[in-house]
Each structure stands twice: as C-alpha cells, then as structure tokens.
Automatic annotation (TrEMBL):
<feature type="domain" description="Response regulatory">
    <location>
        <begin position="12"/>
        <end position="125"/>
    </location>
</feature>
<dbReference type="GO" id="GO:0032993">
    <property type="term" value="C:protein-DNA complex"/>
</dbReference>
<dbReference type="InterPro" id="IPR001789">
    <property type="entry name" value="Sig_transdc_resp-reg_receiver"/>
</dbReference>
<keyword id="KW-0597">Phosphoprotein</keyword>
<dbReference type="GO" id="GO:0005829">
    <property type="term" value="C:cytosol"/>
</dbReference>
<dbReference type="GO" id="GO:0006355">
    <property type="term" value="P:regulation of DNA-templated transcription"/>
</dbReference>
<feature type="domain" description="OmpR/PhoB-type">
    <location>
        <begin position="133"/>
        <end position="230"/>
    </location>
</feature>
<keyword id="KW-0238">DNA-binding</keyword>
<dbReference type="InterPro" id="IPR011006">
    <property type="entry name" value="CheY-like_superfamily"/>
</dbReference>
<feature type="DNA-binding region" description="OmpR/PhoB-type">
    <location>
        <begin position="133"/>
        <end position="230"/>
    </location>
</feature>
<feature type="modified residue" description="4-aspartylphosphate">
    <location>
        <position position="61"/>
    </location>
</feature>
<dbReference type="Pfam" id="PF00486">
    <property type="entry name" value="Trans_reg_C"/>
</dbReference>
<dbReference type="GO" id="GO:0000156">
    <property type="term" value="F:phosphorelay response regulator activity"/>
</dbReference>
<dbReference type="GO" id="GO:0000976">
    <property type="term" value="F:transcription cis-regulatory region binding"/>
</dbReference>
<keyword id="KW-0902">Two-component regulatory system</keyword>
<keyword id="KW-0804">Transcription</keyword>
<dbReference type="InterPro" id="IPR001867">
    <property type="entry name" value="OmpR/PhoB-type_DNA-bd"/>
</dbReference>
Length: 231
C-alpha cells in the first residue's frame, strides 16, 4: 500500500541534517511526492521549526555539531506525537539501540535509497497517523479509518468496532503472519485479561462476513497465527 500524492499533501515532514546537499536531495524528492517539507541544518533550528511547522514525520541525522540527533529526538518526543526516522553514517548497534531507546521509530544507515526511505515514511504514516490517509485501498479492501468503514470487493462490511480494528490490523500487515499474542496486544491492548481464544472467535466472525469459507483471505498458519492474502 502506497501513500498517494493527494494523501501526501496532508503530511508534514521535517528534515534535519547539517549537510546541505542531503537536505536539498531529500527536500526535492519529498516535495515531488507531494509532501509538505521544512528543513533545518542543526538541532536548535529543528526544535524551533517543530514548534511552528508541527511535523508528523522527522528525518533526523545523528551526527550534527552542537546538539546531536539523539538530543533532538529526545526533546521532540517529549513535546509532540511525532514519528522520528534517524539517519546515520555510523552502523554500530549501540547507536541504533540508543536512538530507539530515546523514542526513535526507525533507523537507516547512510548511504540510503530514497525509495526505501519513502517506504519507511509511508509505513510510519500508516502505523501512527492513519487518520491522515482517509480512505485507503489495499488489494480488494478499502478502509476509511475516519468513518470506520470497510469494503471488500466493493461490498461494505457490517463490522463491530473490534472487528474493524482486527481486520484493519490484519490487512495493513498483509502477507505477514501475526501471532495471537501480537494481535491481542495490538487490538485488545496489553492489559487484556481474557483468553487468547477470543481471537479465534473474531477471526471466525470476520471470515463469515468476508464470505471466506475456504479461508483463502484470512489464512490460518498452523502453530504461528494468521495471515491475510490479497486475493
């Protein structure tokens, strides 16, 4: 699933890097994709811009003079619900662990592919700001997160709130096997005190509403969990 140019117009990306060539390259590429972009060359400027620009995504270089990317990430995460993708020329595992522990949502070493960075931006938007996408089409599914509407092969599905969240989680992660425990954590919450067979009950209901009698849409992967295939 990709973010369309129309959808990208709702998404603000703040670029932070002390190398002008990288900033220009990223800004031109993202603007061409439709995103709203602001750029900063140091940490203080980035924090100031974040106040006025209110970005959804921050592409943040680690190695900068003065305030480094770790400090900027920590400050941003304390102030606003922003997704941070950190860039670094250093590949040490310790750096990645430090960035993630400070709240970074993703990590990419330099040099990087613009196509891969774009895919990671889109993944962060889908996971953290799905309301910005409005209606999204994924294979035979259409989901409007704002209106809580789901369609399958042009047919609107009558779903309960929990069924909606479960199907959305499965569809947004299509092609991946999701365990019952992972589904419980994401859809029902970490503090859910019930039995994990509740997932089976809801999967059965979704299959009925999808008319998925042969289990070709929501597949059971024995001993592992469930996987949605776009058929």
């Amino acid at each position: 699933m990709t973010v369309s140019a129309k959808q990208a117009q709702r998404i603000k990306v703040l670029l932070v890097d002390d190398e002008p060539n990288i900033l220009q390259f990223l800004e031109l590429g993202l603007v061409n994709e439709g995103y709203k972009v602001a750029a900063a060359q140091d940490g203080q400027e980035a924090l100031s811009l974040a106040e006025s620009f209110s970005p959804h995504i921050v592409i943040l270089d680690v190695m900068m003079p003065g305030m480094d990317g770790f400090e900027v990430c920590s400050a941003l995460k304390k102030e606003r619900p922003v997704a941070v993708i950190m860039l670094t020329a250093r590949e040490e595992i310790e750096d990645r662990v430090k960035g993630l522990s400070l709240g970074a949502d993703d990590y990419m070493p330099k040099p990087f592919s613009f196509a891969e960075l774009l895919a990671r931006i889109q993944a962060r938007v889908r996971n953290q700001f799905p309301h910005l996408l409005e209606e999204v089409t994924i294979g035979p599914f259409s989901v409007d997160a704002a209106r809580k509407e789901f369609r399958f092969r042009e047919r609107e599905l009558d779903l309960s709130p929990t069924e909606f969240e479960l199907l959305k989680h499965l569809v947004f992660h299509h092609g991946h096997v999701l365990s019952k425990s992972a589904i419980l954590d994401r859809v029902w919450g970490y503090d859910f005190g019930g039995e994990d067979n509740i997932v089976e009950v809801y999967i059965r209901s979704l299959r009925d509403k999808l008319q998925d009698r042969d289990h070709k849409v929501i597949r059971t992967i024995r001993g592992a969990g469930y996987r949605v295939d776009l058929v």
